[in-house]
Design a protein that fits this description.
single chain, 207 residues, alpha+beta, four-stranded antiparallel β-sheet, 6 helices, 60% helix, flat
Length: 207
Amino acid sequence: MLNSKRTQSPILPLVLGRVAIDGQLIRYRPAVVQRDELSGSSLRFHIEFVRSPEASAVTPDGRADGLYHWLVLARNFREGVLRVYDDRFQHIDTYEEAVTLMKQFEDEIELVHLEMESRGLDMDQTLKMIFQPAVRMLVEDLEERWGMWRKGLTDRLTNFAMRRGSLSDDDRSILSGAMTTVFHLNELFCAVTAGAYQGMRLTTQDI
């Protein structure tokens, strides 16, 4: 073994345990805590699985619980991915660095989609159908804008991969604008979902 490094883990998807505790299957949050570099360019990762309180206390079976999970997911994406990469993009100087970082960013986004699946979340079944038609149209618009943003990021990555040397000021500004846009989409999504969650909780309680 050449060395061992403590590492910052990406937000990995929840894992559903196979052994029931008090009659309930529990979800665990995996985290990469150490990376070992071995001879022959091999790597070994140490992963810990931590019982997730927020995942075991609430399941997406009910509509309000489903909204709760969407809020947790959106918050984790904002704080654990968007803010991290927004800062990293501000400290790159070349197209090569930008391409590497953008690929890592896209990988983190894919992990968020896996997280959706591990929580049993589906945009059509657990989210859209909860809202009244007017609000549902807003959610569908956000979904469409998210898809356009993802395509724009992929197209920009392809463009950057064909270039070399120092990152131009214009392209640096484009990256900054892309991050501003995705933060805005995240905030809108959270606002709509939080409003629906609060309203649904109020209507299901005796006041």
